């Protein structure tokens, strides 16, 4: 695939521009501050043979919360790649796009991997509706599901021997839940294709349908993917909502063996209809499920991380400026109940000791930075403080004093940040490689 230089995007002449990654296993490194790429590069060079990286990655929502823009996100990554003399292929992910304007802004900055997020058009309550409610709601949105009759009564046997039966209730629920979302996703994909084709620029599309309370069923996955592909969407990966819980900043919560069986079925759909990759969102710290993901997909996966690099930045502050770290913890607690509104998390202020109750800096780190683990039954949790810091990232980064202080600490200790990130992501990448 040719690699092009984008006149609108910040570029370092010796670094190849972001390009398509195709079906290669890939890993996205989110960087909410703009200083993490050197550590991400170090992790790739140490641990990631065979896995393609995405260094420039941020959602429009995160850019708003951190007062950044697409040009800045791309420029920070490209500057770091130039300084590190990176010469290999890499992608750039414009994450969670919802509007044509989102596409236009990120396309101009040189992004090539466009993640469509139609979650605003998903009916989150569809799994709980009665048959009569489904029929009433379907009558209102049936124009968004012209595919309904074509699936009715159909049955599909997957290579895993799982069978998908498209009975009427299954289709009614899928149409009510995802009909308008599929239509909107196809429209946004058409806009991406138009913008990138007019500019003669590479692109590929990921579709995110993971932001739902209930797991994506096999029937829903099949319909969503087939309709998007038939409409001409250049789909390289799809992110279903997997079984279990994938909360921010913590490991997978659930039965990994059951998850792997489910992943095999979803991967069989991706193989039959595409092929395209399965994508894991909220992938930070989900290390226990990584080998299963890599095995089930036979290497056709994408993993997306973001907040974990911010948490490791706070670890640098904890080591180098402990008083500042304590202040950041206190402010994160103040903001938590407001900032957690857009996240599915278990941590509460009542279950995590306040800084005033913790004497030493090491105790504070143990409670708020060490990785949260589930107990063996997957139902109980330890070390929930990490989620409090995760949810408050936007408030800390845009705080008049704490945000600049955090950035300055990282600028004063770049080697420490890079080493911490290399070790942290080395564990992620090594776990994925176990399943390749």
Automatic annotation (TrEMBL):
InterPro entries tied to this protein: UxaE (IPR032586)
**Assigned EC number:** 5.1.2.7
**Which cofactor does the UniProt annotation name?**
a divalent metal cation
Per its UniProt record, what Pfam families does this chain match? UxaE
List, from the UniProt record, the residues annotated as the active site of this protein: 95 (proton acceptor), 206 (proton donor)
**Keywords per UniProt:** Isomerase, Metal-binding
Quickly give the catalysed reaction: keto-D-tagaturonate = keto-D-fructuronate
One GO molecular function term of this record is:
racemase and epimerase activity, acting on hydroxy acids and derivatives
Protein residues bound to a divalent metal cation: 96, 248, 281
Please state which protein family the record places this protein in. Answer: Belongs to the UxaE family.
Physiological role: Catalyzes the epimerization of D-tagaturonate (D-TagA) to D-fructuronate (D-FruA).
Protein name (database record):
Tagaturonate/fructuronate epimerase
């Amino acid at each position: 695939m040719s690699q092009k230089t984008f006149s609108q995007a910040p570029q370092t002449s010796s670094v190849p521009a972001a390009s398509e990654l195709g079906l290669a296993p890939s890993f996205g490194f989110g960087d909410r501050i703009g200083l993490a790429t050197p550590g991400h590069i170090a992790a790739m060079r140490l641990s990631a043979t065979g896995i393609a990286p995405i260094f420039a990655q941020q959602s429009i929502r995160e850019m708003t919360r951190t007062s950044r823009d697409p040009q800045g996100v791309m420029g920070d990554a490209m500057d770091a790649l130039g300084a590190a003399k990176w010469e290999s292929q890499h992608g750039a992910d414009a994450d969670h796009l919802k509007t044509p304007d989102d596409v236009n802004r990120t396309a101009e900055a040189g992004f090539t991997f466009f993640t469509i997020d139609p979650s605003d058009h998903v009916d989150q309550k569809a799994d709980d509706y009665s048959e009569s409610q489904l029929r009433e709601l379907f009558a209102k949105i049936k124009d968004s599901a012209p595919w309904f009759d074509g699936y009715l009564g159909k049955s599909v046997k997957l290579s895993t021997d799982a069978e998908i039966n498209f009975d009427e209730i299954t289709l009614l629920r899928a149409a009510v839940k995802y009909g308008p979302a599929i239509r909107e996703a196809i429209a946004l994909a058409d806009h991406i294709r138009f913008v990138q084709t007019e500019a003669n620029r590479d692109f590929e599309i990921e579709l995110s349908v993971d932001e739902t309370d209930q797991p994506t069923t096999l029937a829903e996955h099949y319909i969503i993917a087939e309709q998007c592909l038939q409409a001409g969407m250049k789909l390289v990966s799809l992110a279903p909502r997997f079984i279990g819980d994938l909360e921010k900043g913590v490991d997978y919560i659930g039965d990994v063996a059951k998850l792997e069986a489910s992943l095999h079925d979803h991967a069989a759909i991706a193989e039959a209809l595409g092929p395209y990759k399965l994508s894991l969102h909220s992938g930070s710290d989900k290390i226990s499920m990584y080998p299963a993901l890599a095995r089930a997909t036979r290497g056709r996966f994408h993993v997306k991380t973001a907040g974990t690099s911010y948490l490791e930045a706070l670890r640098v502050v904890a080591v180098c400026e402990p008083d500042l770290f304590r202040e950041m913890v206190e402010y994160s607690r103040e903001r938590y109940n407001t900032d957690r509104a857009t996240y599915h998390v278990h941590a509460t202020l009542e279950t995590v000791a306040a800084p005033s109750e913790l004497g030493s800096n090491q105790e504070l780190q143990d409670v708020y930075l060490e990785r949260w683990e589930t107990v063996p039954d997957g139902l109980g949790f330890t070390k929930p403080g990490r989620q409090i810091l995760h949810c408050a990232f936007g408030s800390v980064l845009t705080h008049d004093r704490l945000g600049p202080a955090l950035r300055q600490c990282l600028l004063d200790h770049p080697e420490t940040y890079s080493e911490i990130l290399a070790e942290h992501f080395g564990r992620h990448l090594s776990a994925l490689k176990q399943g390749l």
